[in-house]
Specification:
Elements lengths: L6 E9 L4 E9 L2 H14 L2 E8 L5 H13 L6 H12 L5 H13 L3 E6 L2 E6 L8
Antiparallel strand pairs: 1-2, 1-3, 4-5
Helix pairs in contact: 2-3, 3-4
Amino acid sequence: MSSGGKRKIKIEFEDYGGRKIKIEINGFSSGEEIKRLYDFLSNNTDVTPTSYETEHKDTKFQRFYDILLKHFSVGVFTSSDALLVAQEELGTDLSQALVSTYLMRLVDRGLLTRKWSSSGWIYSIIKSPMIQR
C-alpha cells in the first residue's frame, strides 16, 4: 500500500448484455469517492456491479472483514465482540490492538461506521449494493 492512506480498489460490472467491465482505481482515499463513482455509474450506464474487491483479498484482514459480515451484518458491535468472533473463526489469538487497527481501517475505507456510546466505541457495517458476496 502506498503512503498517505492511498489505496487500490477494483470494481467489476456486468451489463445487461453480459459484457464485463472492470475498473481499477489506484490512490483513492475515502469511501465517499467510491460511493460517488458507484452513484455515477448506476445513474449513467446500464451496468450492475457484481463484485467489490480491495487489494487485501486473501489476507487475514480480508478474512476478518468477512467474519464481521457473517456475524454482524445487522446491528452494532464493539471491538471486544469482533475480537471474540474473530478468534473463534480464525482459531488464533488476535490482540485487541490488531482488531482495533483493522476496525479503523474498515472505517477509513467507508465499510464500517463508528460511534461513541456510554460503553465505548460501537461499530456497524455500512450496507452497500456495491458489496455483494
